Amino acid sequence: MMEVAPDEDVGDDGRRPLPARIALHAVPAAVILLLMVFWREAIDIALVLIFVGYALAILLLMRPGADALRLAPFEGAVPAYRAIIFAAAALCLSAAVDAFVFFDFTWAHGEHALTLISVGNLVALVILGIAAAAASRSRAPDETVETAPRPETTEDRETIATVDALMEAKKLYRDANLNLDRLARKAGIPARQISAAINRAMDKNVSQYVNDYRVGEACRLLAGTEKPVTEVMFEVGFQTKSNFNREFRRVTDMTPVAWRQRKAEG
Question: Does one domain contain both 210 and 251?
C-alpha cells in the first residue's frame, strides 16, 4: 500500500506553511536591499545581526538533538546534526569577525582589520578540522547518564508499546531509509510524541532506539549464521561500516567481529 504524505501545510510540528517560511527567509535579504538604498552605514551591523539570528534559530531548532532531523534517515541523522551545529558555530564566528572589523574601521581606521581577518580564518580552519574529525570518528560519543530517570507518562508507555509492536512485527528497522517522519506515519502517532516518549522513558534518541533493534538482530545473525559481517550489516539496516561498528560497540561494548568470536568460543 502506498504511503500518503501528510499535508505539508498542517504538520504536527506546528511549522508555518511553506510559502510563509519562504517569505520569512526573504526578509533579511529585503532588509539589506533597503539599507543599500537608504542607510549604507548600517549594512555591516545588520549582517552581523542576521548571522547571529540564524545561528540562534538553528540552535533552538536542534534542541531535540538528532531527532530534530525528522526527514533524515536514522543512518545519517547524527552526522547531519553535527554538521548543522558546526554551521551555527561558523555563523557565530563570521558574525564576530565582521563585528570586530566594523568597529576597527570605525575607531582605528582598519589598523587591525588584516590581523582580525587572518585570526578569523585560522579559527575557521580549526572548526572545519574539528567538524571533519567529528563526522568521521567511528567510536560512539560519550552518553550522559542521569542519576534519576526523567518522569514518564502513561501516554509515553503506550506510545513506546505501539512502536515496539510495530518494530517487532514489521521489522521497520531493516529499512535503511527509515526516518522519524516515516516511523510516525507507520505508527499513526505524531513524530514529536514518539521522540518525547523515547527521550523521557529510555534516555536515548529515536536513532539510538532504532539502532538498538538493528544491533539486536545483528547479534542473532552473527551468532546463528555464517553470513559475513558486511552482509549482516546491510541486512539489519546499516549502510556504513563506521556507523555499524559505532552503534554495535555502544550496545555491546564490543566490535561485531569480537562479539562473534566470543560467542563461537562460548
Answer: yes
